[in-house]
Amino acid sequence: MKNQIASLALLLSLGLAGPSHAAGIGDTGTVEESDGNISIEGTNIERSFVGTGGQLQIVGSNNRITVSGPLTSVTVDGAGNTVQVDSVKRVEITGAGSKVYYKSAPTKNGRPASSVTGIGSSVSKR
C-alpha cells in the first residue's frame, strides 16, 4: 500500500495522473489536439488520430499512436513508444526502444529527415 501511495504521489508530482488523463485502461497522461498539432504526455496511451500537416509530440513511455494523414514532424522523448504515420517530413527520437514507422515522406529521397538517439530506437518505412 505504501508503494502504491508513493507511486501515485510521484505521478501526481510529474503531472502524469489526475483529472485530465486520456481515456483507456491502464494509461495515464494527457492528450491535446490544437491547430493540427497533437501533444501526448504519459504512459500506455493507445490512440488514433487524423493528421492535417501539423506536428506530433510524445513525451512518455509505452505509448502506441497511429496517425492517418500527413504530419510535418514527429518528436518522441521517452522509451518503448510506437508511432505509425502515413506521411512525415522529419522525425526526432530521444530514448530507448522507440519506433516510428512511416508509409511515405514528401522529400527528394522518400525518407524523412531523422535524428535518433537511444538504443533500439529507429525510423523505418512500412
UniProtKB/TrEMBL annotation:
* Name by which UniProt lists this protein: Membrane protein
Supply the alphabetized keyword list.
Signal
Superkingdom field? Bacteria
Q: Which species is the source of this protein? A: Lysobacter enzymogenes
Q: What residue spans carry the region label Disordered?
A: 102-126
For bias kind Polar residues, which ranges apply?
112-126
Instruction: List the signal peptide residues.
Output: 1-22
Record-linked InterPro entries: DUF3060
